[in-house]
Every structure is written in C-alpha cells, then in structure tokens.
C-alpha cells in the first residue's frame, strides 16, 4: 500500500528516509565524477528526486514525527538547487518559508501568521522549538541556509536578529555579526540522522569565512590601491601594492589582471602578456584541481565585483580572450593564433550548435571570436587554417540568412534589435578572400570578395542599414563600421584587379570605395597606428570590431597613395555620371 494512504508509521518513514539517503549518495557520486556531463546529469536527477520526495511529504498533514526528515529533505533540496544554479533565488526563500509554516501547522499556530514575513516566522518557530526538541537539529540546519541567503542578499540586520534568536539572546546587546556567528552553536547531529549534503556546522564555517572575507580582505584592498595609483600616474607605487596583493592572498586573478593593465600603460608588452598568461593559469586552477562541490560554498555568499571594478577578473575564457586579442593587437600573430584556437576549443566544448543574437554584455560574441581567430591565423601565415575556421562559422550562421529580410524590417521599425548575421557572414567571406590571396588563388579571392559585397549590398540594403545600424551595441556598432566593411571589400577586390592587370575594374572599385567612405584613408592610417602602438582605440575615431580593425591595417596606405591621387582627378568625373 502507498504511504500516502496508510497511517503514518515506521515503514513509511523508513521508505522516505531510504529515498533521501539514496539521493544524497547519488549527489555525492556525481560530485566525485570526473566527467562534466555525467556530473550534471546525476546531480540533476538527484535534484528531481528530492523535489518529488519533498512534494510527497508536504502533501500530507504536518506531523512532528515526520518533520525532522521533511526539513532535512528541504535542506538537501535547497543546497543542491543553489549549488547547481551557483546562487540563491526567491524560490529558495519560499522553500524555507514553507518549511517554517509546516512546523507551525503542528502547533496549530499558523492561521493568523500566514501574513507574516520570514523574520516573524523564524521568531515564532524558534520559540515553538522549545516544545519540539526533536526538530532542533533540522531547524538549525534550515537556519544556516536562511543565514546564507540573507548574507548573500546583504540583509545583515535580519541575519543578526536570526542569530540572536538562535543564540537565545534578544536584547540586542551585540551588534558584532562576526561575534554572533562565532557564538552560534548548532546541536551535534545524531549518528542515525538522515543523510545531509551539508550539516549546520559546515554552514556555520562557510558563513564565518564569507563574512570575514566581506569585512576586509587585504589582497582586494591592495589591488584596489594599485588600481588607484595606476590611474593617478604612480606606476611604481601601484606595482608595490600589486606585489603585496599577490603575496597576501590566494585570489591572484584581480592583481594579475591589474598588473597587465599597468604594464600596458607603461608600454612593457612582454610583461603585460606574461601577466595575462599567469592570469589564465590562475583562473584555470579551480577548474582542474577542484571539482565544484554540491554544497553551499563561500563563493555563493560573496557579492560579485562590478565588471568595471579592478577586482573583477572574469572567467578563464574571458582572460584567454584578453590575452589572444592583445597578442593580435601587438603583432604577435603566431601566439595570437594559438590562443584563439585554444579559446574556441574551450568555448565550443560545451557550446550550443547554433549562435544566438548577442546580448548586452562586455566582450565580443562567439561569431566575432571566430572572425578574430581567422584574422590571427591569416596574419600568422596560416591561410588554410583560417579557411577552416571561416567554414565552421559559415556552417553555424548561414542557415539564419533567409530570415534576415523580416528581421531587418523589424529593426528598421525599431521593434527589434539589428540582426547581425549578414554582417558576420559577409565579414567571413571577406576573410576567406584574404586567405585565398595569401594562397595565391586569385579567382577564388575575387569570388569571395564579390560574395561579401553581394551580401553587404543586398542582404543589408542601404535604406534599412542606415536606420537600424544606429541601434547596434555589439559587433558592427554603427554606420561607420558597415561602411568600412563595404569599402574594405571593394579595395581588396580592386587590388586583385590591379594584380591581374584589369585596371578599369580596379578603378571602379576604388572610386566606389572612396565615394562610399571618404574617410577610408584616415581610417586605414588610424588602424595602422593602433596596431603599431598596441592601443585599443584612438580619440575621435569610431571604435570598430577588432577583426575589422586588424583587416584595415593590412590595407596599407602606401600601396594606395598613387591610386588615391588618381582618384582625386577621377572623382569629379564619376560624380557627373
């Protein structure tokens, strides 16, 4: 017979407890599995099992004999869910509230208390627990989770009141939260208690570490001081503080990233890139040497640094991109190519098979990483590898092109974001053309440049591009970038016409490029200047995507000076046509 249809007895409790213990063991097996996909699948299955078990328990009237197990299942469910999500949500607060209400149901105290908040519920439950000593261990475990949730949300006042109640003191004598945490003494878990993913004492240790870290962490302080001195033009003092930060703590990411910025400011490219390489290694350590545990960890309780803060060093893949892009910008093409290939392998290991439109976030989107990788490979003389990268990008984006007409219309009306796919695909054909130039296949190069131009002039019509491009926040951000891409393709094809002796066709392409983008010569010079000095931008010049900026640097003004003089005499004639 089903436990839901029989009086509560030891057989039902035994079955429920066995299921809880089995699911906890399954989560711990997942925790120790070396295969990422297997870990996630096992953990997700355990989570769904705990959800179902909790639903069964809470479908029955609340009963004191069952509540220790029910609260234990609640805690295990919250811990595993927060761990998998890498953070707390409102759902966890509701799970805690439901557990507290179940305790009060057994005391027939719930009626008028439904309108109470969590603070008032905790006060009522902890006072009622005096009459329910068998619930004490489970309630302290649940209180530990409540404390973790409030600490992560920076609700320190509520946390202090909870700890005062747990410690049996409500006179407000201590405002020292660290002292209140130290004073909290969770009851010792019974040896025959149901299995838990994390006991109250483990939660207390995490809370103590997280709160002490939030209160004052010297390596963060030293890093912030180093950043301030760098911005104030005191590089030597900045370096001293960054060295102190590295000596003080184990969080090496922020000071290493700040050191790379300092060395870039000083023009020491070798030291800058060494710092970035160390940063990539530092961010890789947790991934390789310590699999994430399915428990509440210190990191979940710390507020993430603002992305603009010097204390934010990002992920390993973000650091790898900074290193790759700086190698590309400073002319270290071979190193850049290898770093980009490593980065793509890292990201594609768990990526979706199709790309989505970019969101508002710092850094380039995946298609732009492919384009930057192709640029680095071409610059490193690895044209065949560049073609392979371009083909991979085309296989992931070309299927979206038939949908572009409607998306452009929506973008023109301002109802949706500007679609990026035609820009990515046309840029891919541009780079393929340059790769074929490097391989000496002139006909293939001209074909790719022509395909690029066809997409730019037909998939992105002029009247629609002008209205929509101004809303673009990532990739080709503005009309300027779109014009530069068109002009780059025209000049590239024109140079191939010159090489094959077809001067008339070359002149037509060059004239069209200059008419479309009169500032092309200035832009090429600026791109060369940025590459020569390793800078990210030039005052007064619209920022371009790195792949396009790098490409423009290859179109040397010295190659076009004589042609530009001819343009000046030919341009008035073309305007009369």
From TrEMBL:
SUPFAM superfamilies tied to this protein: TPR-like
Biological process according to GO: interstrand cross-link repair
InterPro entries: FANCG (IPR039684), TPR-like_helical_dom_sf (IPR011990), TPR_rpt (IPR019734)
A cellular-component GO term for this protein: Fanconi anaemia nuclear complex
Coiled-coil intervals: none
Domain of life from the UniProt record: Eukaryota
PANTHER family hit by this protein: FANCONI ANEMIA GROUP G PROTEIN, FANCONI ANEMIA GROUP G PROTEIN FAMILY MEMBER
Name listed for the protein in its UniProt record: FA complementation group G
Species whose genome carries this gene: Callithrix jacchus (White-tufted-ear marmoset)
Origin organism lineage: Eukaryota, Metazoa, Chordata, Craniata, Vertebrata
Gene symbol of the encoding locus: FANCG
